[in-house]
Automatic annotation (TrEMBL):
Residues 102-229 form the Nudix hydrolase domain. InterPro entries: DCP2_BoxA, DCP2_BoxA_sf, Dcp2_NUDIX, NUDIX_hydrolase-like_dom_sf, NUDIX_hydrolase_CS, NUDIX_hydrolase_dom. It comes from Terfezia boudieri ATCC MYA-4762. Belongs to the Nudix hydrolase family. DCP2 subfamily. Its cofactor is Mn(2+). One of its GO terms (molecular function) is manganese ion binding. Keywords: Cytoplasm, Hydrolase, Manganese, Metal-binding, RNA-binding. This is DCP2-domain-containing protein. The keyword Ribosomal protein does not apply. Pfam families: DCP2, NUDIX. Coiled coil: none annotated. The keyword Calcium does not apply. GO terms for cellular component: P-body.
Length: 258
C-alpha cells in the first residue's frame, strides 16, 4: 500500500495522465464484476475519484486543472480501458447517473438546542448556495439512521450516534426524492462545529426557528419571513413545529426531572 506521504510526493510531480492512471486503479479497476456492469455504480466511483482529485491531488499539485464532474468523467471514460464500452456514450451515461442520483433517498438530521428554538443549518462554499439541514444520500444497504449520523458527522463534525431517536423524524418527498430528517434535541449552543469534508460546506450556523419561513407567520417585528435561500428548509418546518409542541414538550419535561 502506498503511504499518504509517498502519494503526496508522487502527485506533486505527476502529469495529469499519470494521475488518471492512479485514480483508475484506486477507484475503478478493482470494482466487483457486478458493479462494473452498472453504469450508475461506476459513476458513483467516478464521483468519488473526482472528489479525491479536487480535494487531495490538486492540493499537492495546484498546477493541475480543476475539473467539474462531467469533464472529469469524460477523461476517465476515455482513459480507463475497463470503461471503454461507454467511452462514446459517456454524456448519456452521466445524464443517466444524474437522473438516478436524484432518486436516491436522502437522510440527515435537524439539530436543535435545549430550548428547541434554534436549529443548525449548513451552506455550501459558493455565495449563491442555499441553507439546508445537514444531510446526504444514503449508501447501498445502509440503515436510515446510520446514514443520518454519518452525514451529520461529515458536514458538521457533530456525532449524533448516541442521541438520535429512530422514531423522531420528518419525511418529505421533493421532486421524487425521499428525504428523511431525524430530530436531535439538546445540542449545546457552545458546540464547536467543523466539517469533516473539504470544499463542500462553507458555513455552519445556528438559526432561530422564528426567523425561518413557514415556521411562524410573522417575525417579532411584524414582518412576514421571506423564503430567500431557505427553500430546502421550509418544507420541514410545519412538521417540526408540531413535533416541538408534542414530543418536544415531553422531552423538555423529561429533561427537567432527569
Amino acid at each position: 500500500m502506498v503511504t499518504t506521504h509517498t502519494s503526496s510526493h508522487v502527485f506533486s510531480n505527476s502529469t495529469l495522465v499519470q494521475i488518471l492512471d492512479d485514480l483508475c486503479v484506486r477507484f475503478i479497476i478493482n470494482l466487483p464484476t457486478e458493479e462494473m456492469h452498472s453504469v450508475e455504480r461506476v459513476c458513483f466511483q467516478i464521483e468519488e475519484a473526482q472528489w479525491y482529485y479536487e480535494d487531495f491531488v490538486r492540493g499537492h499539485n495546484p498546477s493541475l486543472p480543476s475539473l467539474n464532474l462531467r469533464n472529469f468523467a469524460s477523461k476517465i471514460f476515455q482513459h480507463c480501458p475497463s470503461l471503454h464500452e461507454w467511452k462514446d456514450s459517456h454524456e448519456q451515461a452521466m445524464n443517466q447517473f444524474i437522473a438516478y442520483k436524484s432518486r436516491v433517498p436522502v437522510r440527515g438530521a435537524i439539530l436543535l438546542n435545549y430550548d428547541l428554538d434554534q436549529c443548525v443549518l449548513v451552506r455550501g462554499m459558493k455565495s449563491s448556495a442555499s441553507w439546508s439541514f445537514p444531510r446526504g444520500k444514503i449508501n447501498q444497504d445502509e440503515m436510515d439512521d446510520v446514514c443520518a449520523v454519518r452525514e451529520v458527522l461529515e458536514e458538521t463534525g457533530y456525532d449524533a450516534s448516541e442521541s438520535i431517536n429512530p422514531e423522531w423524524y420528518i419525511e418529505q418527498s421533493i421532486r421524487s426524492q425521499n428525504i428523511r430528517l431525524y430530530i436531535v434535541p439538546g445540542v449545546s449552543l457552545e458546540t464547536q462545529f467543523a466539517p469533516r469534508t473539504r470544499n463542500e460546506i462553507g458555513t455552519i450556523q445556528w438559526h432561530h426557528l422564528s426567523d425561518l419561513p413557514t415556521f411562524s407567520k410573522k417575525r417579532a417585528n411584524g414582518e412576514a419571513p421571506k423564503m430567500g435561500k431557505f427553500y430546502m428548509v421550509a418544507p420541514f418546518l410545519p412538521q417540526l413545529r408540531k413535533w416541538i409542541q408534542t414530543d418536544g414538550a415531553q422531552w423538555k419535561q423529561w429533561c427537567r426531572f432527569e
